[in-house]
Design a protein that fits this description.
With about 450 residues, the chain is α/β, with parallel strands linked by helices. It has helices at about 65-75, 85-95, 110-115, 130-145, 160-165, 170-180, 185-190, 200-215, 220-230, 240-260, 315-325, 330-335, 345-360, 365-370, 375-385, 395-430, 430-445, and strands at about 5-10, 10-15, 20-25, 30-40, 50, 80-85, 100, 120-125, 150, 180. It is elongated and about 105 Å long.
Length: about 450
């Protein structure tokens, strides 16, 4: 039952004869199995590695190599690197990165993910650079969820161990720490069809990528990914791809609304993982738009079945900016000091003004207290904004991009208003006013 021996014709054979042995330990450091690697040039056996067969104490779809040593670092950083092989983990360890485990050559399984969720919040996939490794990354993204995953692509089709040997341990450490890309960027390259001159291939590619981009929480990032698609596709313009993304986003929001279950995303997380109010950097689920609150804060929980609104690009930008104001006092102060600033839509402007008053009175925004000062509609809007999935950190570039988005809509509103005024002037036969408005419309159009 140990998995160390093979039996045939009443004879016993060493299952790992002439192989380098890797002891496989559970998370407590107890040896539960072995893996043997062939090393002799004359070895004609097909398998490079042989693992212990399934036993009462060893399940390859559950155990992770090096978890016993990596667990303290993973628990501290809340992040884990996932690799394929033993030598990759050893190479990473030599490079000074210790929160690394391997699936021992097998595909990542739901059992692996469920046990890692107890200690890890973020996952970094660094599989072999060959086609098999890239295919494994694609499947792992689907299993873990796009919002919780980053990918390190090893150049030249190498595996991490070979990359370390070719370029140095320092180069591998630099690649692992600074060479990460988001799943959407990986999927654009992975799913890109070979023949892009075929229109149907382009349409299929957009159909695959639109829902992926629509699930990205950041409007700025969505815009960047749309532009990347447009650069690749020879027959499509920005507006066409953006329209496809917006349609898919409506489906994502509608699907979340129909499920009506906003608690299930947190079933694998403990209450102690949360701060005093929801952390916008905490990513709750693969397609989440709304989040639930910790159990000990039920007095500030938003209605269980809110009506998900249909949001324009400008409205999404306004909500993201308000979220940044709520969680970053310096952002709120920056815009509060700008007398010329205002939101496009009145409901956001009203909430902005009330947030300023709350901050002036109490120095910070306490969701439970602030919620009591709002009417039902404003409260729903506040919780909707509060629960957006956004990274912890913000930047001046992000803020500028958000303002640009709804500033353009403001200009579009002015343009539409001028057109209405022109129609009225034409009906009244006021030629002088017609000329004046026509000139204004031409100038306004240049701003859009």
């Amino acid at each position: 039952n140990s998995g160390l021996f093979n039996f045939s014709s009443h004879k016993v054979f060493d299952a790992f004869q002439n192989r380098i042995m890797f002891p496989l330990k559970n998370e407590y450091g107890h040896v539960v199995g072995f893996s043997g690697r062939k090393w002799q040039e004359g070895d004609t056996s097909k398998a490079k590695y042989i693992n212990t067969s399934a036993t009462s104490i060893f399940d390859k779809s559950y155990e992770l190599y090096n978890l016993d040593k990596a667990k303290p670092t993973i628990s501290k950083t809340r992040e884990v690197y996932l690799m394929e092989g033993f030598m990759d983990v050893i190479a990473a360890h030599k490079a000074g990165i210790f929160n690394v485990v391997a699936t021992m050559g097998t595909a990542l399984t739901d059992k692996h993910v469920k046990r890692l969720r107890k200690i890890a919040k973020n996952y970094v996939l660094i599989y072999d650079g060959d086609n098999a490794g890239q295919n494994a990354i694609y499947k792992a993204i689907d299993l873990i969820g796009e919002n919780k995953t980053q990918i390190v692509r090893v150049p030249e089709g190498l595996d991490p161990d070979d990359y370390s040997k070719k370029y140095s341990s320092e180069a591998l450490a630099n690649l692992m720490e600074n060479g990460r890309v988001q799943p959407t960027e990986f999927l654009i390259d992975y799913l890109k069809p070979e023949n892009l001159s075929n229109l149907q291939n382009q349409l299929d590619f957009i159909e695959q990528m639109a829902p992926v981009i629509a699930r990205v929480p950041s409007i700025t990032a969505q815009d960047a990914f749309i532009r990347k698609l447009v650069e690749i596709l020879p027959d499509f313009e920005y507006n066409q791809v953006e329209q496809s993304v917006n349609l898919k986003r409506e489906n994502v929001l509608k699907g979340r609304a129909e499920t009506g279950n906003f608690e299930e995303s947190f079933e694998n997380f403990d209450e102690e993982q949360f701060s005093n109010y929801p952390d916008p950097g905490f990513i709750s689920g693969e397609h989440e738009y709304y989040e639930s609150f910790p159990l000990h804060q039920q007095e500030v929980i938003a209605p269980a079945h809110p009506q998900l609104p249909h949001l324009s690009r400008s409205e999404r930008a306004e909500e993201q900016l308000l979220n940044r104001m709520i969680y970053h006092q310096n952002v709120l102060q920056k815009f509060a000091d700008d007398e010329t600033f205002r939101f496009v839509h009145q409901r956001y402007q009203n909430l902005f003004e009330k947030i300023i008053l709350e901050a002036m009175s109490f120095d910070e925004i306490d969701p439970s207290h602030f919620g009591t000062s709002l009417d039902a509609e404003e409260k729903n809007l506040f919780y909707q904004i509060l629960s957006l999935d956004l990274p912890d950190e913000t930047s001046s570039q992000e803020l500028e991009d958000l303002v640009v988005v709804f500033a353009k809509e403001m200009e579009q509103i002015k343009f539409s208003e001028l057109q209405k005024q022109l129609e009225n002037a034409q009906k009244l036969g006021n030629k002088e006013r017609e000329l004046e408005l026509t000139i204004q419309i031409i100038n306004q159009k240049k701003k859009i």
